[in-house]
Design goal:
By secondary structure, the protein is an alpha/beta fold. It is built from nine helices and nine strands. 34% of the residues lie in helices and 15% in strands.
C-alpha cells in the first residue's frame, strides 16, 4: 500500500460498558466527568491526527457511550461485541483511514505526546514496518499503550483472521504473522513500566480518581511528568493497584489486551 504525503491518520478508540472486572468503567465519573470524556479531551491534543472515532457495540448498554460521543461531537461506529477486529475495520471504512492508531478506552490518562511519538515513528519507518507498538518493551506505564498500523494490515487481518482471540481483539493476527506484517517497537526514554495507570479494576479506578482530582482542576492538560510529581508527593497511592495482574492474550509476548 502506498501512503500519500498527507495520509488520513485516524485514532480509533475501542469502548464498551461490559467489562467483566469493572462494569461500566469507561463512563465512571471523576469530578462529574466520565473517564471516556477525559480520554477524548486528551486525544484532541494529539497533533499528528485530527480524526477520532469511537468503536463501540450494538448492545443496549452501550447506548450511553454513543450518547456521550454525540454530546462530544465525536464519530461513533457500532458493531459486534465479539468481533472487535471487524468493528475496527468498520470504523476505518467509515473514517476513510489510511493509518490507524489503536487506543483503548480504559486509558484515560494517556499522554498525547506519547501518541504523537508512536505516529511519528510509524511515518518515519513505513513501509519497513506495517505496525508499530510502544509496549513490546515495557517502558511506558500501563495505560499508555499505543499501536499504529496501516490500513493494508487491518484489511488483511480482518479478511484472514479466524481464531476467536484474533477476532475478539484487533492486532493478534498481525503479531502472529511478522513476515507479512513487520513489527516496529517504540521504546520509551524513561523506565516507567512499573506504573499502572490503566482502569480495569476498582483499585485502578481509585488511583486514577486520585490523580485526576489532584491535577485536572489546576492543569487539565497535565502530562506524564505531572503525574510522576503528584505520585512522589503521595507514594501511598501507588500501592492501591500494585497487586493487579494485567490480562493478556496467550502466545503474544509483551501484549496487553482488553476486549473492547
Amino acid at each position: 500500500m502506498q501512503i500519500g504525503e498527507r495520509p488520513r491518520i485516524v485514532i480509533i478508540v475501542q469502548a464498551r460498558m461490559g467489562s467483566t472486572r469493572l462494569p461500566g468503567k469507561v463512563l465512571k465519573q471523576v469530578l462529574d466527568k466520565p473517564l471516556l470524556g477525559y480520554l477524548l479531551e486528551r486525544l484532541r491534543a494529539v497533533s499528528l491526527s485530527t480524526h477520532v472515532v469511537v468503536a463501540t457495540t450494538t448492545r443496549i448498554e452501550d447506548d450511553a457511550i454513543a450518547a456521550l460521543c454525540d454530546q462530544e461531537k465525536v464519530v461513533v461506529v457500532r458493531g459486534s461485541s465479539e468481533d472487535v477486529l471487524g468493528r475496527y475495520l468498520q470504523a476505518a471504512q467509515v473514517s476513510d483511514a489510511a493509518i490507524i492508531v489503536r487506543i483503548c478506552a480504559d486509558c484515560p490518562l494517556i499522554d498525547p505526546a506519547v501518541i504523537d511519538e508512536s505516529i511519528a515513528f510509524f511515518l518515519e519507518h513505513y513501509p519497513r514496518y506495517e505496525i508499530v507498538s510502544n509496549f513490546i518493551e515495557r517502558r511506558y506505564p500501563r495505560g499508555y499503550e499505543v499501536e499504529v498500523f496501516s490500513r493494508f494490515a487491518l484489511d488483511k487481518a480482518a479478511e484472514e483472521a479466524k481464531a476467536d482471540d484474533e477476532r475478539e481483539h484487533v492486532t493478534p493476527y498481525l503479531y502472529r504473522h511478522p513476515k507479512s506484517f513487520p513489527l516496529g517497537s517504540v521504546v520509551g526514554k524513561q523506565a516507567l513500566g512499573a506504573y499502572r495507570w490503566v482502569v480495569d479494576t476498582p483499585e485502578d479506578f481509585a488511583l486514577i480518581s486520585h490523580i485526576i482530582t489532584a491535577l485536572y482542576p489546576v492543569k487539565p492538560s497535565f502530562g506524564t511528568d505531572d503525574i510522576l510529581t503528584v505520585l512522589q508527593t503521595h507514594p501511598d497511592w501507588q500501592m492501591l493497584n500494585m497487586h493487579v495482574q494485567q490480562r493478556t492474550v496467550s502466545g503474544l509476548t509483551g501484549e496487553v489486551y482488553d476486549k473492547g
